[in-house]
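Ticket #4471: complex job returned nothing on first submit. Input attached below:
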Amino acid sequence: MADTPLRSAQPRPLLRASGYASVVLPAVCVLLLAGPVQVGADEPLSGLEIMQKNDRARRSDTEHQVMTMTLQNSRGQQRVRTIEGWSLEVTEDEERRFSKFLEPPDVKGTTLLYYDYTAKDDDTWLYLPALKKVKRILSTNKKDYFMGSDFTYEDMENTDLVNWEYTHTGSAEQDGVDCYVVNGLPNNDDERRQTAYSRIVNWVGKEDFISRRVEYYDKKDRLSKVLRFEEIRAVSAADSRQRAHKFLMDNLITKHKTELVFSQIELDVKVDDDIFSQRNLRQ
Amino acid sequence: MDHCGKSDAAGDGVSRHRGQGSTTQAVLAVCTLAIVFAAALADADRVNINGYLQESIAVRRDQLDDVMFHRQTFNAEVEGEITENVGFLFEADLWRDDPHFLERDSYKSRIREAHVKFRFDEFDLRFGRFQIGWGQSDALIISDQVTPFDLTNFIVPEFDEIRQGVDGALLDYYFDSGDELQLVWLTRFIPPNFPDHDSPWTFVDNEALQANGLTFQDPVDPPWTVANSEYGIRYQSHPDWADWSVGYLRSWTDIPTPRFFLPNVVPIYDQFHMFMADIAYPKGNYLFRGETVYEVGKAHSTFDPDNPFTLQALDTVNAGFVSEHDVWRTLVAVETKPDFDWWQQADLTFQLVHEQLIDPHPALVEENETNYLVMIASAAYKNETIKPRLLTVVNPDGDDAWIQTKIDFEPFDSWRFTIEYDQFMGHGFDGRNGGNFGMFNDNDLFLASVRYSY
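Support reply: We reran it on our side without changes. The output follows.
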């Protein structure tokens, strides 16, 4: 699929495990008005342009991934979840995702199916093996946390760019990489009401436009969470596209941490439509 | 209207465990052996073994040394693929009950599922024992009547523990549009398990029956014939705007209606037709659910043990003091996620359940019209290690309510600790009000449980 700056993605099939709020998505209307991004070699990039390039750097039509999510509380106690996910970008305005919990045993076999739409409410179905029922459920509250982690659904989903205003505030180094620093602010009342954050600051690599760090500020403008991206390398020997294979989210308020490690990432692989079906939920 | 199990207008039943026929057991044994054999043949990588160990104890609130429920459960599930298109599932429970009302420990087992599944391009086909869930409701059963429930301890075990399996064949056909057609054929009727005579959850007033010189007999299972088999069909669709389904089930009442051929009381299972429809319609931050069933030909008792020879009931004497009526039962529900900082991972559900007897006989010993209001509120704190839940079920006619407060602690993987309090308010139906939950007014309880999943 041709790159477009419409949507963001990193490894994301599960719950856009990478759409993290820093990666805010330009909306169609913005593109129509703005047209293709044209940036002169010597001109400094705007915040929006950086985020658009950041988005392009991690797009794919389909993804398949297996990730292990380790939750660690302030006493060092750990809980581990393993999730396998698939995603398919049906159109620019519709994405389908399927997630299956592999571990721990008490949630093993639980499956989730999402149809994400840009222009309307998402559709979500859940299959609970113990109840033998597929149920349509409410789209999640953006502020809710995913599976006990420090990632909210907002952190993991794509957001319309029109709802955020980006400012390129300077440069900084993260893990030895020179980065653009981009400050994001919600720019309308609806978004300000729905988001858990007053602002989000992104560190984006100047060379590869891959995210290196995200800072989340809560409504009291306290730095509440810091997300770091590590183990950035080629997806496989056959696919040189770079992806972060480890996400580290520190919740500075609760002292709780979440580590996501992607043991498998496949981009633009053949993904059968049947995966995103009610039938597959029950398999 | 029952909490779990098919509704029976009489509200009565039997208080004994029902054994399953030896033929069924033999068939299941063969199925189980076949599955174990298949598991042995299957690639080890394609076999998953899961399950849990659980210890649960419940004591009466007003008498803490009265252990109403004490169970150790071992659950095992083996699931695998023999080939790409053939799989199997076997799940069984083994448990020990040791409540105070039993004179000796009770060891039991149950095969919950044991079936082979064939997967084709357009459809899935299952043979053996399986479980099926129909409908949209939580807490109260509306159309979820294909597979029976174990009613031995009413609401004390969890919902996922009490669903029983049924034997037969199940076809799920998938259309290109994503719609589904389900055909189910159950070889024979399997009644649910009922509370022991001495159980605090029995819904037969043996003392009242004996005081009237009545003898309660064992119910007789319907003969195993093709005509007595159960079958159903359900069509489901999932368009963008909603999920909906319509279905039909030819089944047997799970709770037999007692016939009074004095001095004997003979519980008899009856066949009935059930037509159902349900819908789940999301709109913004709300999800609306609706579910309705129309049951044709259900038997209802006209015999009042306290006033046994009313003139009104005379025309039902030859039928054993039973009158046939259709029943219409409907649920409407709304779910939302309140947005408060203090209410994390919030879920809130309101349900209204309405049951109506059509053209009721004047001597029926049950309500002609019943309503229940249900509220379910849940949350999750501390990174989902603490999960409180509140369930209330209230009959607006009065003297019939159930409140359950429950907290799950999940501080470690695979471990779940639960504490729960259940309160029942009211009394059994007395001709004016009361009902299914109020009748357990003396059974308020505290429950503690620990489950380890593997």
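Residues 301 and 322 of chain B are 4 Å apart (CA to CA). Closing as resolved unless it happens again.
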